[in-house]
Amino acid sequence: MTEKPIIFAPETYQYDKDTLDESKLLKDPIDQFTKWFDEAKLDPREPLPEAITFASAELPSGKVSTRILLFKELDHRGFTIYSNWKTSGKAKDISTNPNAAVNFFWRDMQRQVRVEGFTEFVSREMSERYFNTRPRGSKIGAWSSEQSHPLANRDELQKLVDDNTKRFDGVPDDKIPCPDYWGGLRVVPLQIEFWQGRPSRLHDRFLYSRNNENEPWTLTRLAP
Asked: Which molecular-function annotations from GO does this UniProt entry contain (predicted)?
């Protein structure tokens, strides 16, 4: 007997705002992404266009994990995020498997961008440059949190924050150093897919792909 589901088939949402064909696409997928990202930033109904799903997998188990992060930098080499790379779950994944995936979803624009590739740590100079833009509280938070480690209670975390607040008392915001375990990770893309929602789930999908970072990009339309 089939068990009654807790949640079953929410009302179907139809994508019907735009179309995508090859004539609209730029030759370089980084340029194409920049165009779409700029459009998302200008849309008042997309309040956080830099929000991403970041996927990683630990080896040899193959266990996959995802989390929502904020994308922070783009250059022609790839997409960069910043985090704790000592204790976090994603740090453990990346230490055993450098491959990762990123997904942007702009609901109001009915668009996705899917990125798959390998990862590399950015230079210390890049990490420090970004760290210096963070609010004081976020800098102290980076020193205080052993990300993903168990806590007995919130008070334990607050004590670490209070201790580091005292530690950096009187230190100007721009002189609080970046922890050596904290910094940037770049996803160097080997595949970038642009997805435009269409009615009846007959979406427009175009994939830029290459076998390695030195090859030219190949553009292919994919079935929805």
From this structure: FMN binding; pyridoxamine phosphate oxidase activity
Q: What percent of the chain has pLDDT over 90?
A: 95
Q: Which of 7-16, 36-45, 70-79 has the lowest mean pLDDT?
A: 7-16
Residue 206's pLDDT band (cuts 50, 70, 90): very high
Q: How far apart are CA 156 and CA 160, in angstroms?
A: 7
Statement: residue 75 has pLDDT above 90 = yes
User: 142 CB contacts (<8 Å, ≥6 apart)?
Assistant: 84, 131, 134, 178, 179, 182
C-alpha 60: how far from chain center = 23
Q: What is the pLDDT of residue 12?
A: 85
Residue 62 and residue 68: Cα distance in Å, rounded? 20
Instruction: Kindly report the number of other CB atoms within 10 A of residue 144's CB atom.
Output: 19
Q: Is the pTM of the predicted complex or chain greater than 0.85?
A: yes
Active site residue 77: no
Active-site entry in 154, 201, 205, 210? 201
Q: Cβ(95)–Cβ(47) under 8 Å?
A: no
182 vs 216: CA distance, rounded Å: 33
* DSSP code at position 46: -
Alpha helices in the chain (DSSP H): 29-42, 89-96, 124-131, 136-144, 154-167
Residue 180 and residue 116: Cα distance in Å, rounded? 27
Task: Classify domain 22-132+176-221 at the CATH superfamily level.
Answer: Electron Transport, Fmn-binding Protein; Chain A (2.30.110.10)
Give, in order, the Cα–Cα distances in Å from 190 to each of 16, 116, 119. Answer: 29, 6, 11
